[in-house]
């Protein structure tokens, strides 16, 4: 395990923290699309959960790296077992998947932070309509209609590539040492992310079309894509 990997894991955790922290509080009276399934309404809660899990993974990756310099088994066998209870020799390392995952998370974080800045006070994690609402079509919104969800998808894909593949603490020492368990978590996480993105994109489009009918129709013709230009 290298210092480069540990440093990138921490950078990834910080980037994810910024991208998943609400830039503005939600005012309940301004919410819409509250009739969707509860499991799809708890995106802010899921963000908090996956931020916590990511920091736990980063913490244990740092501890494991430190243990390669100091023999914890001779100092404290219990601590060594907690850090890596695996009976086989773990191989936490840099890998192509890990590198791609880091790039995806940093890019996804940048896109989301840019969306926060572009929308300003209009951006909330729950779907809301503000008194001063307007249709924003600049920056990443000139390429796709829902770039913040593009960023979220890149975050999920990047975190999965970094932590749910071989070579991570989570799969070498942590609770997902079984490859099948990592695949199940990855699949469930991705399905939920897509379901939330599609549900919210449809609701936001309907709301914006209702508020700004002519302006929205022109915008939808120019920018027909939800998340990725030419794909979806």
TrEMBL record:
Pfam families attached to this UniProt entry: ICMT
The keyword Magnesium appears for this protein: no
Protein's cellular compartments: Endoplasmic reticulum membrane; Membrane
Catalytic activity: [protein]-C-terminal S-[(2E,6E)-farnesyl]-L-cysteine + S-adenosyl-L-methionine = [protein]-C-terminal S-[(2E,6E)-farnesyl]-L-cysteine methyl ester + S-adenosyl-L-homocysteine
InterPro entries: ICMT_MeTrfase
Keywords of this entry: Endoplasmic reticulum, Membrane, Methyltransferase, S-adenosyl-L-methionine, Transferase, Transmembrane, Transmembrane helix
Membrane topology designation: Multi-pass membrane protein
Record protein name field: Protein-S-isoprenylcysteine O-methyltransferase
């Amino acid at each position: 395990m290298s210092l480069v990997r540990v440093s990138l894991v921490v950078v990834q955790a910080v980037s994810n923290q910024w991208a998943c922290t609400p830039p503005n509080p939600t005012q309940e009276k301004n919410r819409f699309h509250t009739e969707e399934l509860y499991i799809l309404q708890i995106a802010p809660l899921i963000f908090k959960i996956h931020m916590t899990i990511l920091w736990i993974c980063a913490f244990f990756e740092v501890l494991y790296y430190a243990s390669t310099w100091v023999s914890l088994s001779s100092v404290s066998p219990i601590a060594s077992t907690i850090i890596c209870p695996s009976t086989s020799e773990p191989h936490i390392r840099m890998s192509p998947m890990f590198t791609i995952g880091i790039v995806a998370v940093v890019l996804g974080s940048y896109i989301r932070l840019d969306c926060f800045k572009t929308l300003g006070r209009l951006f909330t994690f729950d779907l809301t309509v503000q008194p001063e609402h307007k249709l924003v079509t600049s920056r990443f919104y000139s390429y796709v209609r829902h770039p913040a969800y593009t960023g979220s998808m890149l975050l999920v894909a990047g975190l999965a590539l970094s932590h749910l593949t071989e070579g991570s603490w989570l799969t070498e020492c942590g609770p997902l040492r079984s490859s099948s368990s990592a695949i199940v978590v990855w699949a469930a996480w991705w399905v939920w992310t897509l379901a939330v993105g599609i549900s919210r994109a449809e609701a936001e489009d309907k709301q914006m079309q209702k508020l700004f009918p002519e302006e929205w129709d022109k915008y939808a013709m120019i920018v027909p894509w939800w998340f990725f230009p030419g794909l979806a």
